[in-house]
Every structure is written in structure tokens, then in C-alpha cells.
Amino acid sequence: MLKIKGLSSGYGKSKVLFDINIVVPAKQVTVVVGPNGAGKTTLLNSIGGLATIHSGEIAYMDENIVGIPSYSLAKIGISLVPQTQNTFLNLSVRENLVMAGYLLSKTEREEKMREIFELFPVFKDFVDRKVETLSGGERRMLAIAIGLMRSPKLLLLDEITTDLAPIMAKRVLKKLVELKDKLGVTLLMVEQTARRALEIADKAYLLVSGEIKFEGKGDELLHHPEFTKKYLGVV
């Protein structure tokens, strides 16, 4: 689905990532973990057209997407769910979904919203409530739903469980696995809270100081002695 080769990127002249090589298999969960400041968000921003690419290639379905603006990426099936400012707090759940489906016709948008409510039944009970009244976990679920309104093939998720209570974080991650299985969507997640994310990962990478330090299966990284000693307690 996605292949990143020799990527060095950052913001302006400043480099954050150095010679990154990552493969994201289709219809699987790929998780990138690492300490705060490792460059995880920059990785997603590089894919999403929001960072400066200094060198390297980002191939989505065998097409190099470097230089394609973020609004065009949505049209070809890439959706980014940022860590913050991912919902409109002063609007209702319904209005947020309508905003997310602005590229769709009215008929398509209504059909997609019906699908969203089937995937997230909890929203049926407060579709007209303002987002600012929802819990943190409900807002994260809504952010994911907003990302799905554009029927993406690849969903990029930035720290989706940050600051959530453990039980709610587990619920959000369980929902993501369910979405992967039901919709066949490919997930690329970056997370600082490593343990829970690695438990659902098909493939995992450890990113430290802008460089990839490990590549393997999620459970392999989770039980890697060096990773456990150096990072698991702080990520």
C-alpha cells in the first residue's frame, strides 16, 4: 500500500527525519512508536503533504506522492487524523460529519453517514450534541469517523490514544481493528503509548531521534529486551 524509501524531511530547512525506510502492507495495522520528539508526527505530515521533503520517495499504490498537496491526497484515498484540532468542538456530531463529507454529493454524504452510524452506534444517541460535550474517548471515535467519511484506503492516525484512560484507549484500538477487518482499510498509526498499540500491530517500527532503530512484528518489538529496557517505561 505504502512504501517510503530514503526519506529525509522536516520543516523548511530544518530536518527531523533521516533516511527513513518503511513499508506499510495493505489491510494491516502498522505502528510506529518512539519517545516524545522522535519525529512521529513529522512522518505522518510528510506522507500527508504537510512537511518539507528534502529527499527520498513516498510511494502510495506504486505512485510517488511527494509534492501532491494534502487536499488532493484525500481524493486518492489517504486520510490523516491529527492528534489535535481533529474535530469542530462548537458543532454537533452530525455537523462535523457533514463538514468531513464536503467533497461528496448530498446523497453520497447521507449514505456515508448511515454507514458511519452503523460502525459507531454510540453516535446515534447524541448525533445532535455539540462535540464539546463529549468525553475524550468519544471525541477520538468521532475524529476517526471524520477520517472515514472520505472512504480512505489508507488511514493515518497521530497519537489517537494520547491522554485517554486505559479502558477507553483499549476500546478505541479495538474499534480500529474492527474497522480494518470490516472495511479493509490500511492503518498507519504513530503512538507514544507503545504497549497497547504494539499489541494490535501486524508490523512495527521504532523511531528514535528521526531514525528507524527497529523493524519487525508488533509482538517482537514489544518483547525486545533493549526496547523494553530503554523505551517501554517512557513511551
How would the blueprint of this fold be written?
Layout: E1 2-11, E2 14-24, E3 29-33, H1 40-47, E4 52-60, E5 63-64, H2 70-75, E6 78-81, H3 93-100, H4 106-119, H5 136-148, E7 154-158, H6 166-183, E8 186-191, H7 194-200, E9 203-208, E10 211-216, H8 218-222, H9 225-230
Parallel strand pairs: 3-8, 3-9, 6-7, 7-8
Antiparallel strand pairs: 1-2, 1-4, 4-5, 9-10
Strand-pairing-aware structural class = alpha/beta
Q: What's the alpha carbon Rg, rounded to whole Å? A: 17 Å
Strand % is 25-35%
- CATH names the topology of the domain at 2-83 and 152-230 as Rossmann fold
Give the termini separation. 27 Å
Mean pLDDT: 90
Low-confidence stretches: none
Structure summary, number of beta strands: 10
The major sheet is characterized as: 6 strands, mixed
**So what's the overall shape?**
globular
Compute the number of helices. 9
How are strands sequenced across the largest beta sheet? 6-7-8-3-9-10
Helix coverage percent of residues?
A: 25-40%
CATH architecture of the domain at 2-83 and 152-230: 3-Layer(aba) Sandwich
Please describe what this structure looks like:
The protein is an alpha/beta fold. The chain is 36% helix and 27% strand. The protein has helices spanning 40-47, 70-75, 93-100, 106-119, 136-148, 166-183, 194-200, 218-222, 225-230, and strands spanning 2-11, 14-24, 29-33, 52-60, 63-64, 78-81, 154-158, 186-191, 203-208, 211-216. α3 (93-100) packs parallel to α5 (136-148).
